[in-house]
Hints:
Blueprint: H1 21-39, H2 45-73, H3 79-118, H4 160-183, H5 187-217, H6 226-258, H7 268-293
Helix pairs in contact: 1-2, 3-6, 3-7, 4-5, 4-7, 5-6, 6-7
Amino acid sequence: MSAVNDSRGTPHYFVPPPSRHPALAALGLFLVALGASQWVNEQAWGRYAVLAGLLVVFSVLFQWFGDAIRENETGQYSRRIDASFRWSMGWFIFSEVMFFAAFFAALFWTRAHAVPNLGSPDNQLLWPGFEGVWPSDKAGATGSPAGTVAPFETMGPWPIPTLNTALLLSSGLTITLAHHALLGDRRAACVRWMWLTVALGVTFLGFQGYEYLHAYRELNLKLSSGVYGSTFYMLTGFHGFHVLLGTLMLTVITGRLMKGHFSRTHHFGFEGVAWYWHFVDVVWLGLYLVVYWL
């Protein structure tokens, strides 16, 4: 969604026609949420609802991106639209910051207040034998004095989380190099750096999938593994979902670069995705420290 130069024929402000995309996106997200809630409660149809919802969402994104690209390339976007895109992306990233801040705050509150309070003498009648220690990795401690949560092992920082940290930090460097190449009118170099960034994102997702498989099969670490399991998967899983979306956006931008879209002076579509990717990098650094080390 890069802006174009104000010129004759470019509207002062662009008002898009009525669109089906918001309604279909809402439907897809509803199916994902409904299916996920049923899937974790062992309803077989939940996984199919999640798959259907994801297909709807990705289909809407493909069509919506295409509409925005056509509007831009046909000269519908003026500098005023470019400014509105920048404000919109800024507020979107701010909302994402608040989203992850809520999860970090929940983890902090659990570890610093809820668990110690439940382990205090005042609460022994509520849960006899409860020990206010973190992490909750075994029956008889925070996990489950009554044995309702099966024993599990916690996830350490070696080796996959550390490798993933190196991958994301490297991807932040490669996308920055791609940006500088675009500013210097070196499109071929920009495309190469962008494909490398995409490859790093895909590799991150592959490692995270392997990490989850290892946690589930060998560590017995699941969403049902007490408060540790739920916070681990919520924080890292939502971040992985953001990496997936960021990788898709990077792929779209790279394809546009190969078609000759963007210039050294007008390329906010590229910049917006770069902002988002750097945000994903920063959030991971916080997760790496808080979830895997502390």
